[in-house]
Amino acid sequence: VSRVPAFGTGLLRYTGPSCSEGFEAYCDKSNVTESVAALVGGITGGAGNNSERAVRIGRYLLDNYEYDLDTPPYPRGRDVVEYFLFESRRGYCEHFASAFAVMTRAAGLPTRLVTGFNPGRYNPFTGYFEVRGTDAHAWAEVYFPSAGWLPFEATPAGPGGAILTKEITPLNFFLDRYFADFVRWGGAWGSELAGRANAAGALRALGIPAAAAGGLFALLILILRLAPAGAGETDRRKKKIRRVYFSARRAVRRRGFPVPPSRLLVEMEECVDGDTFRRLAEIEGVYNLAFYGRAAVTDGDVERVVAASRRL
Predict the structure, then answer these.
(1) Given the DSSP bridges, would you call strands 121-123 and 111-117 parallel, antiparallel or unpaired?
(2) C-beta separation of 110 from 142 below 8 A
């Protein structure tokens, strides 16, 4: 579950000093070198507020540095941010986010480094976003008294383009995912075809008309629906576990405890008694196993969550 904060830049223009009591750790300038401080002074000179300072620093990094996943390790003993800004001038998200965090702190803004994941790719067949290890990402957040912690993206788009700029349809999703495998399978002939058409134009290169392509995808969906009986049994178990899990969340809310979509049941330890917490944790553990784990879901797993729910 993701939450993207919406805020108006007009509101941020009127925020006062941010490095107030309780935020000293996020305003620490001990790692800011003289050269970085001088660079930040030149970038933010004349800025009227903290919001403008943060935006200027982010824009400077986006416009003047190159995204490169093959950046070699930096020399030992060198300040990483200073080496990135003045010598390497290329890097990946950790370099950009670290540089932004140090530079905004030099400008007097409380900043923290954050690691997580990009939104992933929308799968139109399942209705879910698929988030993979390659979606791991780092960025920075700046604190504004009027709005809280707000994310700033200072990393330029990589070879795949900016996040979620491509409209994903069932057709191009299928081609993007499987066309590379087709090229490898086809050897030299496949590579020659790839040279004449990218994934989005693969069907045209093969001479397959749109109507025939629609028929192929209809056949694919039919095959998926005619999956072995074992798959159907797994789906039945997962649906049961899902019902029990969300029923438990509703039960907690009925007792007056706030459980927004982004909050886990195992984060309720301080809100409920010990027995209740153990049952909630057991239900959520099986739910995570069913939908995010590698092991197959068994009837025993279903019985465990049903029993925990009844005791709850």
Answers:
(1) unpaired
(2) yes
123 residue type, one letter: N
Q: Tokens at residue 259, please?
A: 């459980």
Tokens standing for 104? 């905004």
pLDDT tens sequence across 84-123: 999 999 999 999 999 999 999 999 999 999 998 887 887 7
Strands (E), the chain: 66-67, 90-91, 111-117, 121-123, 128-130, 136-144, 148-152
130 phi, psi to nearest 5 deg? -100, 115
CA–CA separation, 94 vs 225, rounded Å? Answer: 42
Model pTM greater than 0.85? Answer: no
Q: What is the DSSP string of 164-191?
A: T-SPP-HHHHHHHHHHHHHHHHHHHHHH
- The values of phi and psi at residue 132, to 5°, are -115, 170
| Residue among 265, 262, 240 nearest 250 (CA) | 265
Helix (H, G, I), strand (E, B) or coil at 150: strand
Q: How far is 208 from 205, CA to CA, in rounded Å? A: 8
**Residues present in the chain in total:** 312
pLDDT the model gives residue 229: 47
More confident residue, 83 or 229: 83
**Closest Cα partner for 116 from 245, 308, 311, 262?**
262
What's the one-letter identity of residue 108? G
Residue 283 has a CB neighbour count (10 Å cut-off) of: 26
Say how many Å lie between the first and final Cα of the chain, rounded.
25
DSSP secondary structure letters along 201-218: GHHHHHT--HHHHHHHHH
DSSP secondary structure, 5-28, as one string: ----HHHHTT------TT-GGGG-
Hey, what are 33's tokens? 């070198």
Task: Say how far apart CA 15 and CA 11 lie, in whole Å.
Answer: 7
Helices (runs of H) and strands (runs of E) counted in the chain: 11, 7
